[in-house]
Amino acid sequence: MKVSARSQVPPFAVMDIVAAANARRAAGQSVLNLCVGEPSTGASDVVRERAAQLLAGGDLGYTEALGSPALRAAIAGHYRSWYGVDVDPARVAVTTGSSGGFMLAFLAAFDVGDRVALARPGYPAYKNILASLGCEVVELPCGPETRYQPTVEQLEALDRPVDGLVVAGPANPTGTLIDRASLDGLAAWCAEHGVRLVSDEIYHGITYSDAVAAEPGPAGAPTAATSLGSGTVVVNSFSKFWAMTGWRLGWLLLPDDLAAPVDALAGNVALCPPALAQHAGVAAFTPEGYAAAEANVAQYAASRRTVLDRLPELGWSRVAPADGAFYVYADVSASGLDSRAWCARLLDEAGVALTPGTDFDSVDGHDWVRLSFASAPAVVAEAVDRVAAWQRTL
């Protein structure tokens, strides 16, 4: 029987590492897992308590396709309090995680054959979802000279025009921010050239005080929500700042022209996002919900400092600026191993799981690895001890 060409996207190499780590753990061996971008704390008490109340007697039937009015209003309020931006709740679409948000946004904005630009290295699901929808992905090689972020100059230098641009700040895997001037410049260029800008902001709220491009305020990063009137789409999620990964809850901020198409697509694709997660998610926007998330960020900051302070001992001289998120993206080519072999040996010989850079960069990723410091500080510290000791054996 036929298997569609659109389904032939590469799997994540990290899943091989996860499977090997699980097998090692099942055999009774020690494993410290720093390969997955998942907060170790889980949802806050206030969210979990609200979920328990709902399970005991709440209405968990279908909501509107774009989400419950209460949650959409809470998200709009979040933009007023964090960014000083007024967002109409009617322009908020609650989605099944940011992954569902990207699928809906890409389906609504792009046709088969459209060209969409994005940074390399970058989160692999962008290009894989776009490719599965028949779009042509245009990778922009981004290095330290642009702080691993795309630029207007790169877009101007393309041999053919593009229909879309995906940006992320803080970015996965590099953790780098886009400063306000650069984001505004990209948004203006896209508006002038009829290019749809999609801004991934799922790591907002997880930034660090010493980051060069950090913004004042709780978000720590500029939002593209100010450009909705020019056709921009903003993607965000409860998975990172609020540590609600398995709840599968995210959102889109939509410009006028995409609101009806996304509404129609959402109703056909999934009817609605998970009702329990939606109703409980409103509690994330309470003072208790914010406080719990901010306490998590303080833990990430401590773990980040542990890693950065020991970079000389690790021998990692080429490292992307870890402005935000919870990643350190480092060049390990001095070891003489490619990143897949490096990660496989590190797990086998030291019991530490990291992610090879080939997931994020098909050209240069064989030199790079990603360390996630979303785990507890004590776990991260022990993992760094093991990595440093192991590297001395190479």
Topology:
Layout: H1 13-26, E1 32-33, H2 45-57, H3 69-83, E2 92-95, H4 97-109, E3 115-120, H5 124-132, E4 136-141, H6 152-156, E5 164-168, H7 180-193, E6 196-200, E7 233-237, E8 250-253, H8 256-269, H9 275-281, H10 287-309, H11 311-314, E9 327-331, H12 339-350, E10 352-353, E11 355-356, E12 368-372, H13 377-391
Structure, described:
The protein is of the alpha/beta class and 394 residues long. The protein folds into two domains: 5-43 and 289-391, Type I PLP-dependent aspartate aminotransferase-like (Major domain) (Aspartate Aminotransferase, domain 2, 3-Layer(aba) Sandwich), CATH 3.40.640; 46-286, Type I PLP-dependent aspartate aminotransferase-like (Major domain) (Aspartate Aminotransferase, domain 2). The protein contains 13 helices and twelve strands. The chain has helices at residues 13-26, 45-57, 69-83, 97-109, 124-132, 152-156, 180-193, 256-269, 275-281, 287-309, 311-314, 339-350, 377-391; strands at residues 32-33, 92-95, 115-120, 136-141, 164-168, 196-200, 233-237, 250-253, 327-331, 352-353, 355-356, 368-372. A seven-stranded mixed beta sheet has the order 2-8-7-6-5-3-4, sandwiched between helices. A three-stranded antiparallel beta sheet has the order 9-12-11. Strand 5 (164-168), helix 7 and strand 6 (196-200) form a beta-alpha-beta unit. Helix 10 (287-309) runs parallel beside helix 13. The longest helix is centred in the C-terminal third of the chain and has 23 residues, at 287-309. It is globular, with a radius of gyration of 21 Å. The termini are far apart. The relative contact order is 0.17.
